[in-house]
Write a structure and sequence with these properties.
Elements: H1 5-20, E1 28-37, E2 56-65, E3 68-74, E4 79-84, E5 87-90
Antiparallel strand pairs: 1-2, 2-3, 3-4, 4-5
Amino acid sequence: MAIDKNSAVENARNDLAKRLNVDAADVKEKSVEDDDFPDMALGAAEDGEMSGQMITSGWRIKLEAQGKTYEYRADKNQVRAFNFKGKNHRI
C-alpha cells in the first residue's frame, strides 16, 4: 500500500515521539517539502544497506521537538529518520 504525504508525516511524528519518549502532540511539523533523493534509500541508507542508484522523488520532513529539529525522508514506499544521533533508520 502506497504512503501519501500526510501518512508519511504522521509516521515520522510517531516515530520521533517514540525515539524521544515524548507524546506525539509535543512533536511539531516544521516543514514538508517535495524533494529528489540520490538513491532508493533516499540518501539515508542504514549501515551496510545497499540501494539502487537512481533519483527517487519524495518528501523531506522536518520536525521539531525539545528545541531541536529532526529530519525524516519519505516516498510512497518508505519513511526514514535521517542522521538521528548520527545514524539513519528505516521505520
